Amino acid sequence: FFQTVLTTSVNNMDVNGRISPNGFQTDATKKDDDEEDVKCGIGGIYPSCLQVLASKKAYVIIYGLLGMNQFAMHAYSVSTLTTIERRFKIPSRLTGFMTGAWDIGTMVVGILMAYFGSKSHKARWVAFGSIICGLACFSKLIPHFWFSPEKIDFGIDMNISKTGNRSLIYTPPEEDCSDGGISLLPAYILIASQIILGIGASPYWTLGIAYLDDNVRKNAMPLLFAITACFRMVGPTVGFLLGAYALGIYVNPEESSSISSDDPRWIGAWWLGWVPLGITLLTLGTVMSLFPRRLPRAVIRKQNDTNNSIQPPMEKSFRDFKRTIKRLTNNPVLIYNSISSVFYILGMIGYWTFMPKYMETQFKISAAVSSFYTGSIGLIFTAFGVVSSGAIISKVKPSPRILAAWNIFVELLDVIGYVSFAYIGCPSDDLHGTWASDGSWDLTMPCNADFKCSPAVKYEPICSLDKSTTFYSPCHAGCTDVSYKNNTKMFINCKCIDSGMATESYCPVDCHNNFVIFIVILCILRFFSSSGRAGNTIIQIRSVSEEDKSISIGFAEFLLSTIAFLPGPVMYGYLLDSTCLVWGQSCGSTGNCWLYDGQVLRYYLNFTSAGLIFIASLFDGMVWYHVKNIKLYDQEVRKKVAEVIK
């Protein structure tokens, strides 16, 4: 009798020691799992060769690879933002919304999918979502193949012999304005693709992590979560390196370009990387669909181990859905942890979204090079931070308060790091021009006034021979002739330059030391930031009962999508646009920004990020206060059960 009482009490008890309202059950009332529920296969076909997949190791690998691909998609999308702005002549606030559109899809379906999918075949939902993501990747190719190829217009006569001198003829470029100038249709197509990606990615986060937690011991969860997170941490490197490779190829690979990839006007093959990403997602999604509803060893363990909770199936309805949401909103740990995550993501998302643009602006490097550095720097530190934190949690089993306190420490360290970034950058005071009364940068000076350089003159930076001043174009430098010497193009007879001579591209800036300092601090921040993610997630899923686990993840994801991931990139896009000095023009419409005020951009981005992360640390302080009674590990649950039964 007492064995039955003990067994049924544990089976109906959540991680906080509360007895389930479903009452007591005896082993006689439990039904064995259907054989199909623990076999790998689909559609009634369960070949023996596939049964090797029915293990937590196989799931961790496939789930980790899917996560890596999802992070690679994010990173690749971010690495191509600047190029997309130039290709389709759109401002940063719109590309920011394009990035955040991913979370419109998540916001629409995430929480409902988490609730109604929590008692269904979780792995198959993850697979279905991955296949949707794969198809959405191919939809990203539509703007490239639908719209006419990009033709770079230099605004001057470029048919110059590479011997002798020729006069420059400044003529406004002929623009096709039959469609009204700048078309936003490509941006709308890319935004729609992002929304579909968000819908497809939602099951991965809400149901994928719940499936893992359902099928492993609680003590093993921190380490396994860290391993899957380590897979995901490789994703940004894959995405940024793929972006660096694609952006090094001309946007139309079958054509040649008269400018190099180092030229700020270069437009790389932004669309190319979506092909391998889409193929990989379709392949991994197909493999994920073969996983069983429950892993065999987990079923056996739950049948034999009376110290694991097995909740009976509960009927899902909208009435119960409302009760569940009310129960979640009354959970202080869940709410404070979610709000802290919202502010933390808001503080970090500016760098996540616009890091390549930031590095281009601050350190005068190309889009391909910035993508390479963004993808490669900090990978080892990030992976080491995630894995080491997961291993330490599994081995040492720190208390919930220690985990919460560590998150506070990490966030305060981030605040210090971002404040320091505000003062690390390259000098940006070498651009020729003056401040206008409306706060814009006026490129017209007495020395170039007779040239009537219209706003339609395309961006073609040149540098004075003494390397002291950068000009927007040869027209704005007042150059009348061009000459080739040793295969190098020289602009001569330039009215705005004392020596009268200039070379192509920006003036070189000695900024190597500042760049190295930036990279070192960034690596340190990545290590510590990643070390807090495992503990944060464990607190999140242990703060609720077993039946609410999936929907609690969906609930947090809904808050993050609505308040952080969606508006965050748009907010930072507006901040970047507000620091623009020179806007591109086409058919009388404003397009993308060509030149930014580097110092103001540093202040806006870094101080905003530091302030938001500091607010996150305050809410983590509330988590620290309320989290002391949460039971994180199997032993604590057993002890609580014994106390209740006694």
TrEMBL record:
Assigned protein family: Belongs to the organo anion transporter (TC 2.A.60) family.
NCBIfam families xrefs: oat (TIGR00805)
Compartment(s): Cell membrane
GO biological process: monoatomic ion transport; sodium-independent organic anion transport
Domain called Kazal-like: residue spans: 441-498
Transmembrane segments: 58-77, 97-118, 125-147, 188-212, 224-251, 271-291, 333-352, 372-393, 405-425, 512-529, 550-575, 604-625
Keyword match Ion transport: yes
Keywords: Cell membrane, Disulfide bond, Ion transport, Membrane, Transmembrane, Transmembrane helix, Transport
Protein name stated in the entry: Solute carrier organic anion transporter family member
Single GO term (MF): sodium-independent organic anion transmembrane transporter activity
Top-level taxon of origin: Eukaryota
Species name: Clastoptera arizonana
Presence of keyword Transferase: no
Main location: membrane
Annotated Gene Ontology cellular component terms: basolateral plasma membrane
InterPro entries: Kazal_dom, Kazal_dom_sf, MFS_trans_sf, OATP
SUPFAM superfamilies per the UniProt record, alphabetical: Kazal-type serine protease inhibitors, MFS general substrate transporter
Membrane topology: Multi-pass membrane protein
